[in-house]
Amino acid sequence: MGKLGVVTLLLSFLIVTMAALGGSQPEDWHKSVVRVEKEEEKVTELHFYFHDTVSGKQPSAVRVAQAMESEKSPTLFGVVMMADDPLTEGPEPTSKVVGRAQGLYGSAGQEEFGLIMAMNYGFTDSIYNGSSLCILGRNSALHPIREMPIVGGTGLFQRARGIAVGQTYWFDETTGDAIVEYNVTAFHY
Ligand SMILES: *[C@@H]1O[C@H](CO)[C@@H](O)[C@H](O)[C@H]1NC(C)=O
Ligand SMILES: *[C@@H]1O[C@H](CO)[C@@H](O)[C@H](O)[C@H]1NC(C)=O
């Protein structure tokens, strides 16, 4: 094939390619491909204590919003708290900190006291340093044991789902301060 032949071939190839591209949307903002799961799913169990301090000079949870009616509500309906609560290995406040639960919880029940939790449990210890779990769901805080859904995670907990079981370990009725024992079961990759 002569030089001209090669050039003609390349040109026609280019034209065909450009025509094909012209038919698609080069600026598409979405793309999906079939993903075949290669990694095996893992299950991780965590056990820690959550320290929620609302009283004193240095509370770990503060009231950030409420409705006019909240003060009159027996369930404090409408009160929203922002928390940065330490998570520790043992129940004592001086026990080793393994992470922090940061986010919002608010009183979402009118008839029965119940919280809606939207919190990030970020871990800072061992191989889980930098990994987090996201909890979103109802917490019937006055029940001895309650379940909260794990809806996602980051780091080693990527694509996590599972359940967090909370049990009040200690509660001061006067101040509202609490220590909650957690058993978490997370399924992730
Ligand atoms: C966790 O990671 C941070 C940032 O990478 C680092 O500063 C810190 O020392 C680590 N903590 C532990 C306990 O490994
Ligand atoms: C967590 O698991 C331990 C060991 O199985 C158990 O003794 C404890 O009662 C559980 N606590 C909660 C809050 O489920």
Mind explaining what this structure looks like?
- The protein is elongated.
- A hairpin with a 6-residue loop joins β7 (about 145-155) and β8 (about 160-170).
- The chain has one helix spanning about 5-25, and strands at about 40-50, 60-65, 80-90, 95-105, 115-125, 130-140, 145-155, 160-170, 180-189.
- It is built from one helix and nine strands.
- The longest helix has 21 residues, at about 5-25.
- The relative contact order is 0.16.
- It starts with a helix and ends with a strand.
- Strands 1-3-4-5-6-7-8-9 form an eight-stranded antiparallel β-barrel.
- By secondary structure, the protein is mainly beta.
- It has one domain: Beta Barrel (AOC barrel-like), CATH 2.40.480.
- The structure holds 2-acetamido-2-deoxy-beta-D-glucopyranose (2 copies).
Summarize the structure.
With 189 residues, this protein is mainly β. The chain contains 1 helix and 9 strands.
Fill in the CATH topology.
Answer: AOC barrel-like
Examine the secondary-structure arrangement and name the CATH architecture: Beta Barrel
Q: Which structural class matches the secondary elements?
A: mainly beta
Number of helical regions: 1
Integer count of domains: 1
What fraction, in percent, of the residue positions are helical?
10-25%
Q: In one word, what is the shape? A: elongated
Largest sheet: 8 strands, antiparallel, barrel
Key phrases:
189 residues; mainly beta; 8-stranded antiparallel β-barrel; 1 helix; binds 2-acetamido-2-deoxy-beta-D-glucopyranose
What's the arrangement of secondary structure elements?
Elements: H1 3-23, E1 42-52, E2 61-65, E3 80-88, E4 97-107, E5 115-123, E6 132-139, E7 145-154, E8 161-171, E9 178-188
Antiparallel strand pairs: 1-3, 1-9, 2-3, 3-4, 4-5, 5-6, 6-7, 7-8, 8-9
The structure holds 2-acetamido-2-deoxy-beta-D-glucopyranose (2 copies).
